[in-house]
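Q: I'm writing a short explainer about Carboxypeptidase for a general audience and would like to include a description of its predicted shape. Could you first generate the structure from this sequence?
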Amino acid sequence: MSVGKNDEVQLFYYFFESESESERDPQNDPLVLSLTGGPGCSSLYAIAFEFGPINFDFSTYGSSLPSLVLNSYSWTKMANMIFVDWPVGAGFSYTTNPESYYTSDSKSPKDVYKFLQKWFLMHPMFLKNPLYIQGESYAGKIAPMIAWEISKANEAGLLPQMYLQGYFVGNPITDVYLVKNEKVPYAHNMGLISDEYFKLAECSCNGEYVIPDLNNVQCHYALQLINECLEDLNTYFILDSTCPNSNIAKRDQTFTEVDSVTIALPSSRPKPACREQYYTISETWANNPYVREALHIREGTKGEWVRYNKSVAYAVDVASSAEYHLLLSKKGYRGLVYSGDHDMEAPYSSTLKWIRSLNLTLDDDWRQWKVDKQIAGFTQRYGENGSSFLTFATIKGSGHTAPEFAPKACFAMISRWLSYNPL
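A: Of course. Here's the predicted structure. Afterward I'll give you a sentence or two in plain language.
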């Protein structure tokens, strides 16, 4: 879909109609626009490793083109979903003008709004569907900004009018500084550093752990002790193993023939202990010429597909997007913010800090929420006059991409929230 100045930016997307278990009804089910983090991660990551309708079958990897298996906890069972390779440069998105690769926090939400404008003109039958914007990690910072662009456009009478209902974000990096600074207190709360080390840092650094005073020798010493404790920790999921070599060699194989494409039930074969090994399947699959042809990738527009393009030309020009949550809540839009509680990349405690800074009215205080009579996490809700504007939830025992580690719990959470039911 072409967006931006002179339509030079080409945003690639995947669209899945809903597959409701009781009655497939894409014409009435919610429509969710989903963005993956980074910035620079392909949306295929969310599709295949988190909450999309398919996963890769690891049992076939190495002998043939990786096959696909159904995901029992796909969010497409309750909503139509558009997954966008955002920003330009991520996944299969590209631009015909090299200068257009430069984008930012302030520019990219406008591009995504333009994307939605054109998408709805091509699919007007979905204009009456409730619309939600979803993002995780760094895209969790951008999602409420996109929702605000839609809200402003609707009020200005721009067409097409979109039936925006709200947004939901997972482990969002809403405030980059706050996220980074909260890692030390979080590590202490999780038992990763000693009381003595934390007290030394707390007293000597004056709460500044990101850019401490260069002349504060004691603070630097305390942070050095802490860094040594956290070395080799998987900060995306502190319970998970780390790869012995982060630069895992890709399998040197090309497939000259395509086996019959099948989508089966999930394999019983366990995934490898090192999660990065499982991720390499997506690179083998997405770089296969037959797959790229089937996905309608324009020949010559993209070189090698990578799961996370860390070289995207992206400027962080918005320090925090917390204010957009407040603006949207005042307009009556619903918001859900969820966090895996074992994520140290965007600690749930940092999220709670910016939520509380909004001074919203607490409607439902901290409590358990359950799935199959078991505690799935904890939640609290903010609202006024019986209306729930912002819900916060933790996902117990989960990491940075919560649906990847707790698919059943996250499926239940989103299903309840989209249905206007309490968690």
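A: For your explainer, you could say: Residues 246-269 have pLDDT under 50 and may be disordered.
Q: Perfect, that's easy to follow.
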